[in-house]
Specification:
single chain
Length: 89
Amino acid sequence: SLLLLVARPAAGTDAGHLRATHRALDGFARIGTIVVAVIVASGLANAWLLVGPSGLGALPGTLYGQLLLAKLALFAAMLGCAAMNRYRL
């Protein structure tokens, strides 16, 4: 239903449709924030269990650590784009 609200032609848009779209996007952003927080929390717990505090220093030297750092960099870039879209654009 979110796709139907957003993909509507501009000619068929009225004030009620804009209010409904705004409410839907606001709810979607709220749920998205909660999902990102859960992903971060589960990732930290997983890293704690797999690597532990003593293995953090050796992490960049392993293939697992390099892949993890690349994934974290991409995740941070995605969050930056999402935040820019939400608060700037």
